[in-house]
């Protein structure tokens, strides 16, 4: 109890008053405070979202003398200047390289006349984007003509837009003309539409797998339709297929002109506010939080509300929210993202564009982030209703606007491991390793839990150590090994890079505090993914008969 109260000791500037009042008893502690108050003349307070107040009382050791909340965020982060916050250090030695090799024949010479491939994508905009990219490569593997993929209109995101309302379809077809023959629609023969053979390929299907599962079908029908086409292509393929993936994803897939224009308007407005801007992709929807099985500090109200949502998934049973959190399986809260950014050295005055759907708890949840970074913006604050009208009724078009702003931002940060986070991470690597901050959730989770015991100095320096390898630098240890997240076959080193790189920028695995690790080492995945696995009782979250609401859930997660 005592420990509990201590954390809420008043925030008014006791540091300043302490300086003249140094007493002999706690000289050492006070010296530290002097140092801190020098750095932070007027500590500002923010209300803790308090995600752990009911869980970690045991972490307070009542025997040690303590005087005050030592964890205070300084008003300015200016003192941290050992790192360039706005660019990655080694990026100038790399470049995106997706040209085909000389061994890759032109489409005309490989396309077989009676093979047409149709694709139904699935999920939200970004998951569909991976599907479209992989579809082109699948068509090439099969020497087939690709029909422009159909977008998913029935997903959780409920968007009726067609391919050509989101992407520039003429550009798509012409830019890939050397690689794959693409047509808008199946040919009509004698006024009758062909009916395709419809099937589904296994997840992460490789070349051989397409030969086995799809190729024989062309002897039955001229057209084969692959449904629910998401992550149906292996991560590892031969180089020319990987490079084709990059040509599709980074060059051939362009949003339509109205989307690009509005997106650019938003980018310009952000750029006009300051020299640099940060974009934050925040996923904090109620359903997602409920499903994660974590506790986010909202007390009884939250437990009741999220518990109610959780009941929708009958088979789901989450018993230990505390463990979920300790293992870094919970999406960072807006406050935690803010603390991480401040610790990394981003100043309070930085302008942040927030891309998000519904945020659980709304303004209340965002308040602690706003206290750390008062300049928070979104589509709705920097554009008028009128300007957004052509987009606002279509979730994919709105997502496309966010995609553009996040892509163009100087620093992109996420609190999640969803499709948008992955695809933008890969894209930003390809286009020059723009700073992309993915939270090292496992390490940060423990740090957040004990932050009340740390000074800001200690806290921030540990955040910086934990984030090494998670900042979008070249040669970082790739995340899950997903191609779209880290398109390594399409990133080339400049000839002069070798010399400069020696001894530099190696991934540092800071396992310093692993002795306190009580849990067995687990797969690096967030709670949401592991819960999905559990729910579907498979490592492969698919090809199981799904009841409707589980299907809907899977799509919610497929942003
Ligand atoms: C890729 O090909 C284009 C021509 O299509 C050429 O201009 C460019 O220099 C090539 N890039 C590389 C890295 O070879
Ligand atoms: C595709 O065409 C190439 C070149 O003709 C050939 O080597 C390859 O075996 C063909 N693959 C299929 C699946 O038809
Ligand atoms: C495809 O678009 C890129 C620009 O993103 C361009 O450099 C490339 O030459 C285009 N390729 C073709 C075949 O039009
Ligand atoms: C679900 O919860 C019950 C009761 O807490 C427990 O006995 C059971 O083992 C759990 N099932 C799984 C698969 O974790
Ligand atoms: C998953 O399925 C297998 C075989 O169908 C079964 O033995 C196992 O108990 C299931 N696991 C869970 C967690 O339901």
Instruction: Please describe the biggest sheet, giving its number of strands, its sense, and whether it closes into a barrel.
Output: 5 strands, parallel
Strand proportion, as a percent range, falls in 5-15%
Ligand set: 2-acetamido-2-deoxy-beta-D-glucopyranose
Percent of residues in helical segments? 25-40%
First-to-last CA distance: 42 Å
Radius of gyration: 26 Å
The strand count comes to 14
Number of domains: 2
Spatial arrangement of strands, main beta sheet? 4-3-2-8-7
Let me know the average pLDDT: 82
Number of helices: 24
Unreliable sequence segments: 1-22, 34-65, 503-525, 537-550
Inertia-based shape:
globular
The secondary structure category is: alpha/beta
Transmembrane segments: 21-40
GO molecular function, one term: glycosyltransferase activity
Keywords: Carbohydrate metabolism, Fucose metabolism, Glycosyltransferase, Membrane, Transferase, Transmembrane, Transmembrane helix
Region (Disordered): 504-529
Written overview of the protein:
- This protein has 559 residues and is of the alpha/beta class.
- The protein has 2 domains: 107-254, no CATH class; 258-512 and 519-557, no CATH class.
- It has helices at 2-6, 14-18, 27-39, 107-110, 125-141, 163-166, 169-175, 207-213, 239-252, 257-271, 286-292, 299-310, 321-326, 334-344, 362-372, 379-382, 385-392, 395-408, 419-430, 441-449, 456-466, 497-501, 527-536, 548-557; strands at residues 94-96, 116-121, 145-147, 182-183, 188-189, 192-193, 197-199, 223-229, 277-282, 351-356, 376-377, 411-414, 435-437, 491-493.
- The strands form 4 sheets. It has a 5-stranded parallel beta sheet. A 5-stranded parallel beta sheet has the order 11-10-9-12-13. The chain has a two-stranded antiparallel ribbon with strand order 1-14.
- Strand 2 (116-121), helix 5 and strand 3 (145-147) form a beta-alpha-beta unit.
- Helix 14 packs parallel to helix 15 and helix 14 crosses helix 21.
- The longest helix has 17 residues, at 125-141.
- It is globular.
- It starts with a helix and ends with a helix.
- Mean pLDDT is 82; it is low at 1-22, 34-65, 503-525 and 537-550.
- Bound molecules: 2-acetamido-2-deoxy-beta-D-glucopyranose (5 copies).
- One 2-acetamido-2-deoxy-beta-D-glucopyranose binds at residues 317, 319.
- One of its GO terms (biological process) is fucose metabolic process.
- GO terms for molecular function: glycosyltransferase activity.
- Residues 509-527 have a biased composition (Acidic residues).
- It comes from Lactuca sativa.
- InterPro entries: FucosylTrfase_pln, GDP-Fuc_O-FucTrfase.
